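## retry 2 of 3
previous attempt timed out at serialization; input unchanged, resubmitting
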Amino acid sequence: MSDTIERLTGADYEEAMDTMGHAFGFEEGRDFPSLLPQIYRPTDEWMQAIYAIRRDGKIVSAVGCHPRAWQVGDTTLKLGGIGGVCTLHDYRGQGLMKRLMDRAVDDMVAEEYHLSWLGGQRQRYQYYGYERCGNVLTYTLGPANIRHADRNARAIRFELMTEDTTDWIAAAKAMHERRPIHVLRGDDDFILYLLSGYNEPLVAFDSNGDMLGYVTYKDGGIKEVTATDAETALDVLVACSLDQNGRLGVMVQPDDVGLSRLLGGMAEAVNVSGSGNWQIYDWETTLDALMKVKRETHRIEEGEVNVEVDSDTFKLFVTTDRTGCVKTDDAPDLALTVFEAHRLLFGPTRPVDVVEIPDRARMLNTWMPLP
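## retry succeeded, writing output
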């Protein structure tokens, strides 16, 4: 059976949300608009991100491809976030998801996206070119750690950020945009990102009423923490742990080196894991941007390595005054499959845990994984 793939409109919002919620088995009170309010909105602009197939006039399968601008140093990368991949139970096993995923990936390539991300079971999405990789650190911090570290807790109070607290939102957005790597968020939807995943955005203030930073909190987890500096971020986390009287699981992005160093000296444990399933379309631009940020945040040493990915070779280099990646016709120092390249270059494990590293490519052991 040949099914037409369509891009949805605002008029399809209610049906699409009902179909997706039913396919995912959401319980009452849970739905995609409350889970991810920044991307599920009842307008043509937002709904056209969803590809769908109908049977007998009703939506039975859907895949969302949501465009994002990912700021990596001075480079803005075009990122496609895949989500809401679903097919109603009675229509599974008919290849509908494959058709929608293939179309979404084809469109991203045609529209010159640099890369794409999604969550989900690893092998399920390897069929479409994705590989689980990236690296994110989760530190466990509790009152006992704080007490034995003999760190004096600052007088910090927390207030809930809402759509009405526009001054707090503006200040938080400015802090967010100072990060080396961040998704560009608009003035109108900044808080929607913080609310995603049913999180609570909490603003931290000192005893003088000055804003120190913010966290997103849910059930003992901190998904995002941003402050004026790393020491202040740790103060905010200490205060949050004591305020909640319990352990926190604090997610720290790999470019936030200062906070990682501080937490590393105090936290009970740290877990390093992949950040999701990624697919790179423009290797040269993506690697160039990430190499530059890695040099700035980690002070990596000088060197040069030619890496072949599939049939293309890229020169990764760090010199006194230049860092980056360019496509080259030079012979490769190391040849990788696409999946190996994702894991070796972006982690979470060491390069040597992916493939054997020859001497001529040994600089990869100090440079990788990229943030």
